[in-house]
Design brief:
The chain is mainly beta. It has 2 domains: 94 residues, Immunoglobulin-like; 256 residues, BT2081, beta-jelly-roll domain (Jelly Rolls). Helix content is 11%, strand content 38%. The protein is built from 6 helices and 32 strands. β16 and β17 form a beta hairpin.
C-alpha cells in the first residue's frame, strides 16, 4: 500500500511539473521547403527548393525560380517552426505566389508573440557589376535593443531593395551593453567617399564580453553573402556564409581604397606582437554553389581564411586577391585578377556559381587577431568579365 501511495505521489509530481512548464515564447521559422519532383523543373537546381538555417533576424524568405510566367498557381510550402508554435496559412497548404508575396504569421505556443514572414518566389536578381556603397539603412541589435548599425543594400532595376551585402555587425551588437551609433560599429557607411558615400571598416575591441570568450577584436568586414547571427558566439567561423549567385565569369575587380593600420597588433590572447603591423584584405572567390551530390553548398569563414588552401577545394574555380594594400590617406586605385580554371559556359549560364567578394580591415580578423583602430575605406568597386 505504501509503495502504491509513493508511486501515485510521484505521478502527481510529474504531472504537476509538466503542467507548470512554461509554454514556448518563440515564434520563428527555422526552415522552409517545397516537396515533389513535379516542382523541380521550375528551379535551376533541386537544392534551391530548400531553405535551411533561417536566422531569427530574418523575416523574408525568397525562392528563386527559372521563370515566374511558368510558375504554377498552387505551390505548397512546408515550414519547420519552433516547438509548439502554429502558422497561418496552414503549413504545407497550396498558395498562389504568382500574384506576389504571401504573408505567413507564426504564433508562439503561449499565444503572446507573433511574427509575420514574407514568402515570395522570384526570378534571379543578380547584383550589378559596380558597387558605390551609397545606400545603407539602420538596424537594431544588442542586449538593450538600442544599438543601431548599418545594413548595406542596392536597388535593382525595378527599384526594389536587394540585400546582397552582409557584415558581422549583428554579431558585434551582442558585445555592446550600451547604446551605440552606426559609426561605433566595425562596418558602416561614410560620407567621405571617392565619389559620394563609401564603405568604412574599422577593427574594434569587443570589450569584456570578447575577452571572456577569447575574441578580443572584431575586424570591420563586408562580403557578398549572409551573416548567421545565431552562430556568432558558438561557431563564429560558420556565421559568415560567403557568396551570391552569379551568371558571368569574372576576370578582374577594381576599386579605390584608403587604409590606416592600428598601433598595436594583438593575438587572440590579447598579447601584443612586437614589430607586427596590421594589414587590410580584399579578395574574391568564384565557386560552384551545388556539390556533386546535388546539395546546396556555401563557403564559410573557416574555409576562406586561408586562400591558398581554398584553391584545393574542387568546387572552387577561381580566386582573386589584392597582393598588398599599403597604408595611405589618399584614395588609391587597386585591382585584382582572377586565377584558376575556366568555368563551363553552360554551368555559368545556368547560374551554378556563387561569387564572394570580401573586404576586411584586418587580414587575420577571422582568427580574432589584428590592431584596434585599423581602418579601411573602399569605394567604386567594379567587376569585369571574361566576355
Amino acid at each position: 500500500m505504501q509503495k502504491l501511495m509513493t508511486a501515485l505521489a510521484l505521478c502527481c509530481c510529474m504531472a504537476s511539473c509538466i503542467k507548470d512548464e512554461a509554454p514556448n515564447k518563440e515564434c520563428d521559422i527555422e526552415g522552409a521547403w517545397i516537396e515533389g519532383q513535379e516542382f523541380e523543373k521550375y528551379f535551376y537546381q533541386a537544392a534551391e527548393m530548400r531553405k535551411g538555417n533561417i536566422s531569427s533576424a530574418e523575416t523574408s524568405i525568397t525562392f528563386t525560380v527559372r521563370s515566374m510566367s511558368m510558375l504554377p498557381t498552387q505551390i505548397p510550402v512546408n515550414f519547420k517552426i519552433t516547438d509548439g508554435a502554429t502558422i497561418e496559412p496552414a503549413n504545407g497548404s497550396p498558395q498562389d505566389f504568382t500574384k506576389g508575396t504571401v504573408i505567413y504569421t507564426v504564433t508562439s505556443e503561449d499565444g503572446q508573440w507573433k511574427r509575420a514572414y514574407k514568402v515570395a518566389f522570384t526570378e534571379p536578381v543578380l547584383p550589378k557589376n559596380k558597387f558605390s556603397f551609397e545606400n545603407a539603412e539602420e538596424r537594431e541589435g544588442g542586449f538593450l535593443i538600442q544599438n543601431k548599425y548599418h545594413q548595406f543594400f542596392d536597388y535593382d532595376e525595378l527599384g526594389e531593395k536587394q540585400y546582397f551585402w552582409a557584415s558581422g555587425n549583428a554579431g558585434f551588437a551582442l558585445s555592446q551593453m550600451a547604446t551605440a551609433t552606426p559609426e561605433q560599429f566595425p562596418t558602416y557607411m561614410s560620407e567621405n567617399g571617392y565619389e559620394g558615400r563609401c564603405l568604412c571598416l574599422q577593427t574594434m575591441s569587443t570589450g569584456p564580453f570578447g575577452k571572456l570568450v577569447q575574441k578580443p577584436i572584431a575586424a570591420g568586414n563586408l562580403f557578398l553573402g549572409r551573416f548567421i547571427v545565431e552562430n556568432a558566439t558558438s561557431k563564429p567561423l560558420e556565421s559568415t556564409e560567403f557568396g551570391v549567385p552569379w551568371n558571368r565569369e569574372p576576370l578582374r575587380i577594381t576599386g579605390y581604397y584608403k587604409y590606416k593600420p592600428g598601433k598595436e597588433f594583438i593575438n587572440q590572447k590579447e598579447e601584443v606582437i612586437p614589430n607586427r603591423t596590421d594589414e587590410a584584405s580584399i579578395y574574391a572567390v568564384f565557386y560552384r554553389k551545388v556539390d556533386d551530390k546535388g546539395e546546396k553548398y556555401f563557403l564559410y569563414g573557416e574555409e576562406v581564411a586561408d586562400l591558398d588552401k581554398v584553391k584545393d577545394n574542387p568546387l572552387v574555380y577561381k580566386v582573386a586577391r589584392v597582393s598588398a594594400l599599403p597604408a595611405t590617406d589618399q584614395w588609391t586605385f587597386f585591382e585584382m585578377f582572377f586565377e584558376g580554371r575556366g568555368a563551363p559556359d553552360d554551368m555559368v549560364a545556368n547560374k551554378d556559381f556563387n561569387l564572394a567578394i570580401v573586404f576586411s580591415s584586418s587580414l587575420r580578423g577571422a582568427q580574432f587577431e589584428g590592431a584596434v583602430g585599423s581602418t579601411l575605406y573602399v569605394d567604386e568597386v567594379e567587376v569585369a568579365y571574361e566576355w
